[in-house]
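Posting for a labmate who doesn't have an account.
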Amino acid sequence: MTSPRPFSRTSRLLPALVACASLAIAACDNDAKIQPEPPRPGQGRSNAVTAPKGNGAATQPSAAATAATSAARPAAPRQLCTGQAPRPAPTGKLSTAAATGESPLPATLGFGVGKWVWVNFWAAWCKPCKEEMPRLLGWQQKLRSAGVLVDLAFISLDEDERQLNRFLQDQPGHGVRASYWLPEGSDRTSFLGSLNLKDTPELPVHVLVNPAGQVTCTIMGAVEDTDYPAVAAYLGAR
């Protein structure tokens, strides 16, 4: 009987080679399951506004980015006193009111005497009216310093004379302590009607009368600090 032939060296190594090959195949499978690399800076969702596409074109800005850009951009100056045809200033006597110790105002406004008159319609119950009064007084001084002859004429549309007088009495010495007054009635209707204003307009209202006595500009609503350059240019400030 012939004895079994011993395994060759190659036969003994074969199981080890098979095991190594199995491990290599498993490693490849694991590599295939690895998650893709996270996006690099500039490729994330939040940067999609400026991240270029394959053809080099930029994506459209998101709504949030557009809003942020708009907020950073300064607002355009408000257009005032444009496209308004001149018309004669209103005439007639006005009622007046003044705090204790103040000189009474003349019964008529000084239109057409070689200087601008800034008429401000207001009321003691109107918060924006009262808030802008220091601004108007300050602008008057600035305009005069810039060579503009301009007077301020405050005209109250209060219905309660007691409320008007109480407001004037409570003002400091440099505040508005005297005002014209247009109570309800035919005089108010006629005066405001000549300015194309309703009998009860939304306050405040500003009317600019040029040195020749012509109404050349009406501004509805309160003025802001940002409006001064436009007003100064319109009045010819130096």
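Reply:
Got it, the structure tokens are right above this. Confidence is low (pLDDT under 50) at residues 39-58.
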